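Shape matters. As here.
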Amino acid sequence: MTMPLSAAASAREILVRLHDVMAARSNAQAKLNQVVEIIGEALDSEVCSIYLLREGVLELFATRGLDPAAVHVTKLALGEGLVGTIAADVEVLNLDEAASHPHFAYRPETGEDRFQSFAGVPIIRRERAVGVLAVQHHEARKYADVEIEALQTVAMVLSELIANAGLIDGPSGAAGGARPQSTASVRISGQKLVDGMAAGYAVFHQPRITIEHTVAEDTEAERHRVYAAFDKMREQIDRMTREAEFGVGGEHEEVLATYKMFAYDEGWGRRINEAIDSGLTAEAAIERVQQRTRQRMRQIDDPLLADRMHDLEDLSNRLLRIVSGQMGTAAQLGLRQDTILIARNLGPAELLEYDRRRLKGVILEEGSLTAHVTIVARAMGVPVLGRVRDVRRLIADGDLLLLDVSEGSVVVRPSAGMEEAFDAKLALRQKRRAAYAALREVAPETKDGHRLTVMVNAGLRDDVAALDLTGADGIGLFRTEFQFLVSATLPSRERQQRLYREVLDAAGDRPVVFRTIDIGGDKALPYLKDDPAGEENPAMGWRALRLGLERDGLMKVQARALLEAAAGRTLNVMFPMVSEAWEFDEARELFEAQRDWLAARGRRLPNEIRYGAMLEVPSLAYQLDLLLPKLQFLSIGTNDLTQFLFAADRANPKLAERYDWLSAAILRFVASVVEPARAAGVTLTVCGEMGGRPLEAMALIGLGIERLSITPAAVGPIKAMIRSLDRGAAMAEMQRLLAAPPRDFRGAIAAFAAARGVELG
């Protein structure tokens, strides 16, 4: 029989006949027996066989041409023989001399030695090979491309039939070569982004679309569905391009340009159309083309090209969601149980959509320490593990996950023993937390009766609840940029004012220190156009106060919002990343000008404005004599200070381990600021992660620091440490160590703490 001219026509001929088979009331085995006959006839092949994955091995389920006695008897492991190779590699094989292939395995019970040519395609379900469809012929011949295409289309339809009939291993079963057995535990490592532990069930941010119907009833109707979906998708992409959130040079623009290129790619649309012509539904046609793309991706070594292919995959998924009507993310669908969320990447706004009671942790395929989502997750107290590879292959929806970011790993489908060990570790953490919670009403007072001030860092309206939960003395650092980071457009003065007023209301009598926006550099806002060339060293770049003074319109709006929000109260405002004394002067003048403007219009003003600066840039330490007389308070930002002092990027894990907060350089620097600030009557606070670690905080107190602003989670451990500490003894010890610093400064401080019974958690 001569094959029809096109792959679509050939596949259509087969699908028309298969449609009746699938609609029949006969059992699955009878249907498979009919399927091999239809395909064998259509392709003029003496042999057509179907192998399905059962209990981790490929079993011959139906055949035309091989010995019927071999059905359910012949079994092949993944990677064994030609059939096993196809399933393991999820690749097509097309051979004119089957026996010459290195993976050829002769099975005498089948009687296949009479057939020379061989072609096989994987039967794919949810990106896993769940079986193989193979044809064989007496004569040595390669099957034509149109025949292979037809086989692949048929394989797709088969996947629906066999999955519905329950003939294959479930989604957690063994398949695809590297997919573990359903019962097997697997530990996956990643990058520590936000510390913490959590147990929960895997939920994908974008749930996988399951295609229920593959064979079309009405080809034209399916075509119109695809056209409508394409229009809608292009509209979405155009809108994304226009929206402020993406209207910027740099990465966002590149991504969208690629998106647009693919969205309007005629070749892509044509291939989907051809797949519909072959008799597939709109969903199946998109997936069929995507399968072809994935196969090509596996052969691509160029990482840039592979990334572009990922973009196409994202776009295909978007098109599939539109056409199937399954548009919602997991947030919109709602979380039903304790959840570990899995995503390629997330925006901060997307994270905030989730129910915080059920969201226990996040796993990202990408992600970085400086990503906005990491900053927001840290504020929410949600542990995040980033740079986790192969999540879709290794984790199935609903799998139990044990996330331990402190170890940099997640355990998938843990054994009972693993769960036990994890629960014990978690219980210990929670027991400690409960002990810390009991300290809520207790003042942070040292053993020798010295009252210290412990405040919290915040950035979102909900963070303010931490004041009451921890019993903190106030908010020592309110990061106003969070509102900008989670917003798609520049927040209006009214929106800013509303947030600041709500924060002040919630804090009541306790002080709130507002830091003006620290954006730019590594916290770039997509809606603010920056240097299109980008910055090689963003943390040291055009950011924070530098950017604020240049874009004074941005700062003026924020100044008015803060002044109006604090009407009738005390406003504490702090400028970030001051490098020179004149920068502080300019920023203060800007605020004072806005105060005068509001006063001239009879607006109600704050009772008092207290101005402060962040000491993060070492150059400022050499200008304290100029600056301190103008300040009411000074905050040392240890995160940025460390990287500037050591010329070490804190996002680099290698350097993070090398340069220690408990080093003579850092501690001497802090000590050099304490006395001048005290003499000038300026309140001195340490903000940043350093103050939130018990041993480091003890060292700071030993230097004379009396105020700490730390993450809410650290308040309990720090209070416990303070109440077990003799401040006088700590100060004497720090003085001794700084005079002749030991190489292992940390070890020396830890030895002091152990000898004195200081509680370090």
